[in-house]
Amino acid sequence: MEKVVIHQARVIFPGSSFHGKTVDLRLRNGILTEMDVALNPQADEIVIQGNNLKLFPGFVDIGSEGGEPGLEHRESMQSLQSAARAGGFTHLAIMPTTQPVADNKSVIRFINSITSPNPHIWPMGALSVGCEGKDIAEYYELYEEGVLVFTDGDNSIQANDLLLRAMEYTSAFGGVILHHPEDKALAGKGMAHESLLAVKLGLKMKPALAETLQVRRDLELANFANTRLILHKLSMPESVELAEKFKQENQLNLAVTVSINNLLFNEKALEPFDSRFKLHPVLRSPEHQKGLWECVRNGLVDILVSDHRPRDIEEKQKEFDLALSGATGLETAIPSLFDHFYQELTEERWVELLSLNPRRWFGIPMPVLEPGMPVDFTLIESDVSWNYSSKNTHSLSVNSPWLEHTFNHKVVGTFYFNPKHS
User: Fold this and answer.
1) DSSP label at residue 33
2) Residue 55: closest CA among 74, 32, 73
3) Total-model pTM
4) pLDDT digits (tens, 9 = 90+) for 297-312
């Protein structure tokens, strides 16, 4: 990225004076030095050009699982960052569910010590000690290490008093609670949406009530504690609508995220018993899938997430009911979303969902696209055919539902530079 010229990219960058224009860009050592209708490349410059290039503010993914420390066989920090770059992300907020769990400053310091500058890694802190849901973690100690958001990942907190205390403590210093709502007693060992199809397939079912009931509880607790809450990976349109109604009535500082898996797939994907589609939350009915997308279209969803969950081959290639849930997603999130839905939203709405809203909630600096400023943007090529396979993946794990799929949108590159890290 030392000397680069990007040729004829359409700028989709709200707030920039170049928004909506097609221009050339010149980069020098991570700084945008020049933008114009046409630039003459010099002999020592790398020229990047393509078919229908689009330049977006650097995408941000929140809630990906890594592996290091303790689970490097699934995903090392190096492979995680490589997958994120390939997927177009310049910032990545990662779950604390490592081994050991990131519930203390030592683990946070270790994670920060092994990360490279691009993409920028934002570790989240554990909501409970060991992510076990039994006692609150040392929030302020983690906050002093730069942690702003606290979560137990897919481990939903069942104890009302613990979650309330967590909300009250973190609200004292402006912290954020990210919680995936699910009543474990109702969910049981369910691995499919409660439906006639699940009965026919003989799969244990997870009722929608397991989600919607705990959404109501989380909203009431957050309102009582006056805390900032992210309801993470809602899978039911009813849950999203409930959250929006409560937010408006109570002026709650609330955000809703949705996993791209629940937008792109539904329960019919389970019919071949392909464990790559055993996910958390479970895939819902086609009607729920459509309704969830309508919530995105209507502005009720704030952030879309890749839900990157690397798993060993041995953990996925087994009987469906014994396989671990989860799929990798960093490298395919943007191509799959854009292939299926790009024309259905305004480009400004895509920027909100994938870049600006997650930055607001995680305290990530807003990008600026003007000459003289450090770069923080993603370059996408449209109308191009490429195949995603186990041979070209950057992740150490291959539990992707998109293996051997051909996409029509491709990430050309991610460009991020923080002068503090130079």
Assistant:
1) E
2) 32
3) 0.96
4) 999 999 999 999 999 9
